[in-house]
Amino acid sequence: MVALSQITPPIPLGALDGRYRGAVAPLVDHLSEAALNRERVRVEVEWLAHLTSTQVVPGVRALTDAELARLRAIVDDFGADDIAELAAIEKETVHDVKAVEYYLKRRLPSVLEGDDAQEAAQLAELIHFCCTSEDVNNLSYALMVRDAVTRVWLPAATGLVDQLADLAHQLADTPLLAHTHGQPATPTTMGKELAVLAYRLRRQLRRVESAHYLGKLNGATGTFGAHVVAVPQADWPQVSRTFVEGLGLTWNPLTTQIESHDWQAELYADIARFNRVLHNLCTDVWTYISMGYFAQVRGQGTVGSSTMPHKVNPIRFENAEANLEVSNALLDVLATTLVNSRLQRDLTDSSMQRNIGTALGHGMLAIDNVRRGLAGLDAVPEAMAADLDANWEVLGEPVQSAMRALGAQGVPGMENPYERLKELTRGRRITGDDLREFVRSLGLPADVEARLVELTPAGYVGLAPRLVRDYLA
């Protein structure tokens, strides 16, 4: 038997790097192991630039603009050869962050103007100066997660919600028999039901958009101990704050060796909540498809069933459900695990954070499937109308409500409206003629009687169309 593990190029172990690579590839730029190393290089480069430009360490000159440009080009040009070189260095150091330090020290002479080896050696001591590995790692992860969320996840999620909102507006006036507890209930419109989901999703998007990405740089146990001994005259909290904020992050002044990761837990909880609402959308649309309210036509030139030619299965929504569940399982364990650390530090978080890309990847795959699924739907108003016309009993609610209002005004003959409508409608189907005959027997004021006689299930949608237009911008 062929050992598949020995085939080159390597066969992906997981579906995200295999079957579904196209849907999640943009996350590789931000949440892969290579992206982590690139961000480590970025943090080390910016820390060196910050120390020299502020001249925190006495006697160290500021780098010229040209030198800074060459220094930052190390990050911009980080590619396959650099990844391989770092891997080779790490085999010797058996320490990933230390490998980044050595990698940069190799390049410093080519960054500086002239060929002063002594100056290069002196400046090299400011690479990783007073840093513990977690100073570099926490900032790297904050940058990675920020960019993955704001540049990849949020645009995809926002595009999905906008697509859903457009569909809600298109169907704002399309009457729909509602179902509560799976039973026929007060009619609504398809657009209003979709608008509810779009509104919920947008609320979660706003929470994600307002997220704070925290970072720290304060040494081995969060005390600036080495910093103060090395350069006692510097205002190290201020140096740290300006550096972290200069990266576009929020400074955390009080930590142990690690940044506490509370912001990550908050963010992942919000994304997971978005996923759960999206899962609700999938199950609702799946049900509407099964009821014939949507037809899957556009973009469905595929095999629905291997044996039943007539079928077009709602696979996009089913695929999305599965991936949302995997995504949320990972997001939940990230949120609950990352906020805990034994005393000053343990390595649980290091292993756990390597799953962030997988968590967001399954969510991204779900978003892609839902978008494709929605794009393939055609509403079938005739099916919705047929169900409405078969359930005239749902008009028992407005009739008894009108009777209650009249009874409260002192109009005679309006006693026990709920019970009378229950006797008429519960447990049996009635026709429009049945309802109109009942209404005409009540002795209602002429204007009320006329209004109720003209009422149909399809016309009993309240303010549903207006709610879509007024509150789903």
Automatic annotation (TrEMBL):
It holds the Pfam family Lyase_1. One of its GO terms (biological process) is IMP biosynthetic process. This is Adenylosuccinate lyase. InterPro entries: Fumarase/histidase_N, Fumarate_lyase_CS, Fumarate_lyase_fam, Fumarate_lyase_N, L-Aspartase-like, PurB_bact, PurB_C. It comes from the Bacteria. One of its GO terms (molecular function) is N6-(1,2-dicarboxyethyl)AMP AMP-lyase (fumarate-forming) activity. Pathway: Purine metabolism; AMP biosynthesis via de novo pathway; AMP from IMP: step 2/2; Purine metabolism; IMP biosynthesis via de novo pathway; 5-amino-1-(5-phospho-D-ribosyl)imidazole-4-carboxamide from 5-amino-1-(5-phospho-D-ribosyl)imidazole-4-carboxylate: step 2/2. The keyword rRNA-binding does not apply. Residues 341-461 form the Adenylosuccinate lyase PurB C-terminal domain.
